[in-house]
């Protein structure tokens, strides 16, 4: 029970903005060319985010060190697929075409989110 509480506390901290901040350029209204995504306890942080077309999304799997659990960052329509993410972060290039791209983990489809690509 103590362990479960500790994990929940970590998730809460991360969900409240520990990860996923966009670049300073984005804050000024310019293109969002990079985005960091973390996977922790079978969830993406952030799980809804916006980038410019062709942006680089770097996905780090923190569950690898916790559980030796692989994950993927994969568009439902096949537009992008990280392949298995283990200890080393994987870079994925966002699609060129603006639109909404639902994504999930191929291994754990209940892990999901939405990537919004702008022009
Ligand atoms: Cu997974």
How would you describe the overall organization of this protein?
This protein has 119 residues and is of the alpha/beta class. It has a single domain, classed as Immunoglobulin-like. It is 22% helix and 32% strand. The chain has helices at residues 2-18, 24-27, 63-67, and strands spanning 34-39, 44-45, 48-52, 56-61, 74-75, 90-93, 99-104, 112-118. Strands 2-1-4-6 form a four-stranded mixed beta sheet. The radius of gyration is 14 Å and the shape is globular. The site of copper (II) ion has 5 residues, from loops.
- What value does the Rg take, in angstroms? 14 Å
Unreliable runs:
4-18, 20-26
Query: Pairing-aware structural class of the strands and helices?
Result: alpha/beta
Order of helices and strands: HHEEEEHEEEE
DSSP strand count: 8
Task: Identify the bound ligands.
Answer: copper (II) ion
Structure characteristics:
119 residues; alpha/beta; Immunoglobulin-like; four-stranded mixed sheet; 8 strands; 22% helix; binds copper (II) ion
Brief summary:
The chain is α/β, with parallel strands linked by helices and 119 residues long.
Provide the fold topology.
Layout: H1 2-18, H2 24-27, E1 34-39, E2 44-45, E3 48-52, E4 56-61, H3 63-67, E5 74-75, E6 90-93, E7 99-104, E8 112-118
Parallel strand pairs: 1-4, 3-8
Antiparallel strand pairs: 1-2, 4-6, 5-7, 7-8
Copper (II) ion binds next to loops.
């Amino acid at each position: 029970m103590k362990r479960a509480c500790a994990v929940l506390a970590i998730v809460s901290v991360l969900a409240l903005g520990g990860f996923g901040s966009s670049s300073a350029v984005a804050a000024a209204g310019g293109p969002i060319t990079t985005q960091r995504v973390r996977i922790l306890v079978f969830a993406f942080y952030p799980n809804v985010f916006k980038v410019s077309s062709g942006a680089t999304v770097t996905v780090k799997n923190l569950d690898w060190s916790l559980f030796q659990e692989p994950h993927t960052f994969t568009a439902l329509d096949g537009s992008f697929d990280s392949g298995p993410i283990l200890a080393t972060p994987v870079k994925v290039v966002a699609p060129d075409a603006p639109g909404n791209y639902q994504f999930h983990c191929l291994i754990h489809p209940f892990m999901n989110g939405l990537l919004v690509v702008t022009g």
